[in-house]
Structure formats: C-alpha cells, structure tokens
Amino acid sequence: MPRILITLGDPAGIGPEVIDLALASDRIPHDCKIEVIGDRSAGIPGKPDARSAAAALAALDDAVRQLKNGSADAVVTGPVSKEGLQALGFPFPGQTEYFADAFGVADYGMLLTGDTLSVGLVTIHEPLAKVPSLLTPDRIIRIGLLTADFLRRRGITHPRIAVAGLNPHAGENGAFGDEETRIIQPAIHQLNQAGSAIFSGPAVPDAIFREAALGHYDAVLAMYHDQGLIPLKLLDFDTAVNVTLGLPKPRTSPDHGTAFSIAGKNIANPSSMIAAIRLACELA
C-alpha cells in the first residue's frame, strides 16, 4: 500500500485538530498507510512562536527526506505560518516553492481543486503589479500542460481547459489591454497543437468560472492568484485542495491557513484536510 505522510504544520494552529478529525472520520481510504509527522508539543494552540515555526519546518524537512529516500509515496502538508517560517530564514514564498526547490524542479505549478472547480495558476505568489510582466506564452504553456497531465491522472482522458484572459472582458479586442492577443492567444494555439487537451480562450474572466462550475470545462487556467482562488474559495472552501504540479511524488495540502484565532477551540472544519488526504492517496 502507498505510504502517505501528513505534516502537522504549525502546531499552534489548527493543523493537529483537523488531522485528528480527518483520521477519525470514515472518509479516509483504507488502501493507504498514513503517518503523521511533527512535534505536537512544540506549540500552544493560538500562540505561535519561533519554536512552533521551527517544528513546522522540521516536519517539512523530514517529509522531503522520506520522499527522496523512497520510504514515502506522497505527502499532505498541514498549514504553516509563512511569516513564522520566514522569520527563521525560510527563503520561499510558500510550501509550493519549498518543495519545488527541494526536488530541483523548475517545471512546477500550483493547482487548486474542489468539488466544483479546478484552477491552475499561471502566476502564484506575486504582487499584482508584476503579473503583466511575468506572463509569457511559455509560462502559460507550461502550466497548461501540467494541468492537463493532472486531469488525465484523475481519469479525464480528454481534458477541457478554459484559459482566462488577464484584463476585463478579456481585453475587449485591445480596448483594455493587449496581453490576450499578444501573449495568451499564441499560448493557447501552441497548447492545442500539443494535443494534450482542448484549450479554449482567452475567456472573459468574470464569466468563465461560472461556465466551469456548470461543468462545461474540467479546469480553468487563471493568470494570477486571486483571479482563480476567489471563485474557487467561494464555491469550494471546505473541499478545496492545493496540489503542487510537477513534483516526482504527490504533494497536497488543505486550502486554508493556520487559523490561530480558532486553534484549540474544537470548531475547525476538517473537510479540506480529508479531501487533501483522499487526493494524495488517489495520486499515489
């Protein structure tokens, strides 16, 4: 059976709670071996500090070691405090970039998937002002191919992927910007030539997520973080899973943070953690 690791995340957050609730539920697959790693004693619920952040980082390092040496087949990462990690010298914007660096992977991406939507992100943790300069056909093609591969791994033989425009009304034929014609459309043309999926667009951003939610597309490529995650969290907040695309072994994570303000109050919802564990088992 595949062996799945779960990192506690920051032990001062809700990670330990939602993991315990998830494993106690009747929704965890029985065809995977699951092991939780991390030091629960290193954090007081609701009171993050350097010790709890260090414990979160140590669990991540342990997970990478086990994935690399072949003793683990996938990892589910509990929520961490980016601020806490960076105070320790953690040089990455988030766990996605950490795992890509740990495995030496340059061709990677972030995808969020829930009961209603799946969204691939062309740019991730970047200031909004930088997004137009970061968009290139190659970047869109790379994330498009990774997203198509993920969907095929989940049994969708011919994925239908909508590519969102960057500007309002997808640029309105150049009235609101030319990124659609200059960057996005050429990328869609090359993606369709690759034959890995059916790519459509550039699509009007304020309408395409409704079409995807109605089942007309299997995923949407969003040009920037909030463009994709606002609709996904509106519709799938309790079931959304963060997936790092391009790694040699699966990494998933619940799509919520540490929620220090409710840690230890036994009111955290484990649904996203359950979904993350289920997806890790499926991919492994």
Tell me what you see in this structure.
- With 284 residues, the protein is an alpha/beta fold.
- It is 40% helix and 17% strand.
- It is built from ten helices and ten strands.
- It has helices at 15-24, 50-69, 82-87, 95-102, 131-134, 137-153, 179-194, 205-213, 225-236, 271-283, and strands at 3-7, 33-37, 74-77, 109-113, 118-121, 160-164, 198-203, 219-222, 241-245, 251-254.
- A ten-stranded mixed β-sheet has the order 2-1-3-10-9-4-5-8-6-7, sandwiched between helices.
- Helix 1 (15-24) packs across helix 10 and helix 6 (137-153) crosses helix 7 (179-194).
- The longest helix has 20 residues, at 50-69.
- The relative contact order is 0.19.
Notable characteristics:
10-stranded mixed sheet; single chain; 284 residues
Compile the SSE list and pairings.
Elements lengths: L2 E5 L7 H10 L8 E5 L12 H20 L4 E4 L4 H6 L7 H8 L6 E5 L4 E4 L9 H4 L2 H17 L6 E5 L14 H16 L3 E6 L1 H9 L5 E4 L2 H12 L4 E5 L5 E4 L16 H13 L1
Parallel strand pairs: 1-2, 1-3, 3-10, 5-8, 6-7, 6-8
Antiparallel strand pairs: 4-5, 4-9, 9-10
Helix pairs in contact: 1-10, 6-7
At a glance:
The chain has helices spanning 15-24, 50-69, 82-87, 95-102, 131-134, 137-153, 179-194, 205-213, 225-236, 271-283, and strands spanning 3-7, 33-37, 74-77, 109-113, 118-121, 160-164, 198-203, 219-222, 241-245, 251-254. By secondary structure, it is an alpha/beta fold.
Residue runs with pLDDT of under 50 for 5 or more positions: none
- Main sheet? 10 strands, mixed
In round numbers, the mean pLDDT is 96
* SSE order: EHEHEHHEEHHEHEHEHEEH
